[in-house]
Amino acid sequence: MGFIQVSRGTRDILPEEVIYWQHVEATARELLQQAAYRELRTPIFEQTNLFERGIGEATDVVGKEMYTFNDRGDRSITLRPEGTAGAVRAYIENKLYAQGGVQRLWYIGSMFRYERPQTGRQRQFHQIGVECLGSIDPRADAEVIAIAAQLLQSLGVPEWTLSLNSLGTSEDRQRYRDALVNYLDQYKDDLDPDSQDRLQRNPLRILDSKDAKTQEIAKAAPNILGYLDTDSQQHFDRVQQLLTDLDIAYKLNPCLVRGLDYYTHTAFEFELDGLGAQATVCGGGRYDGLVTELGGPDTPAVGWAIGMERLILLLQNAELTLNQSLDFYCVARGLEAEAQALILCQNLRKQGFSVEMDLSGSTFSKQFKRADRSGAIACVILGETEACDRTVQLKWLISGEQESLLQKDLINQSQQLREKLMATKSANSSS
Which residues of 46-65 are buried (b: 16+ CB within 10 A; e: fewer)? Predict the structure, then answer.
């Protein structure tokens, strides 16, 4: 009988790659805490009508990509395909609006869409997202965009392009929709099959078609920015001015419509060089009607989500070096020495050191080879003599320097030990 493989569209994230995930998560967590965003954790599945009402039944996400099933109570359940609808549902259900002021929330977790798997795009994927609920001020738009830019900069992402557009109000968008359909009807037979299907159902999505012929037709389509009313135009002008004041470069892209129906006014995407067709790593915008649509009070909101797979792929391609060095590798031979080594390793960990203990029971020479391969700064050695004397041999693996210490001194002198480890790491990284 053969072994069982992972399901198509999912993948294992092995320890060598997990360090990149931890780096991104820790960087995002610190930055978002500094910006007064609070973490929200919502269920991995929700009632299906949350996404049908929130995202829009005419979207590809709802129509083609959701993982939906009936549970044992014959209730229609969907694995979350994105994070905003669940965050808004939590905002309404838990009456976070009653706290007053602006609610700044962020989340991290798995999302699910039934798509064709490819590099940087899986059926189970992960997002970090922010939602700023309760402010119509263009400064909220600029703030969330600035936070995304700062996160990419903090992670050392070298090159990115910010595309910006406005979808206006629902009334603006309806006027534009009528003009767009009137234009595209002339070329209906020349559109790709997906775009022909979208012509009446969701015509704005035709603007970001990947089909070359459809893209050529879309170039001459009416510009949505010409259909904004005065208030919408003033809002968008203010967002642009604030981004300029923040020294955040952007380009206007009137074909940027995003794939979810809830967007209003500002829409934006960050695209990264070096990712090919999967260049968009962060996307978001304003969604002033979603809270009301889902049964809550009239609440303006804006947010974004970052695709972690694509971001981490770029960091790996850039050969980002992450410091994951081990402080100590402990080797021991003999029943008593091995017992003492276990206690010593645990005490070192309590002092905040990272320690790996060799559990092979093999010869010292084989254990020393593993110590050299471990990347540890120093090796703690216990044999029969050390066990009898309650000492250890401490070998600094880079220099080869070795010293004998009482076991209690190894623990009691933790501050001096930490300083020497730091100095050794620093010297090693600069060499």
Answer: bebebbbbbbbeebbbbeeb
Q: What is the pLDDT of residues 311-327, one digit of tens each?
A: 998 888 776 666 667 89
Could you tell me if 15 and 23 are in contact, meaning their C-beta atoms sit under 8 angstroms apart? Answer: no
Token duo for residue 60: 């590809």
pLDDT in tens, 112-130: 999 888 887 899 999 999 9
Whole-number Å distance between alpha carbons of 31 and 311 = 16
Query: Going from the N-terminus, what domains does the chain have, and what CATH number goes with each?
Result: 15-168+228-317 (3.30.930.10), 328-430 (3.40.50.800)
- Judged on CB neighbours under 10 Å (0-12, 13-18, 19+), 73 is exposed
Q: Which residues, 6 or more positions from 309, have their beta carbon under 8 angstroms from its beta carbon?
A: 120, 121, 122, 125, 126
Tell me the C-alpha distance between 198 and 326, whole Å.
55
Q: Structure tokens of 282? A: 């962060």
Q: 271 φ, ψ to 5°?
A: -110, 140
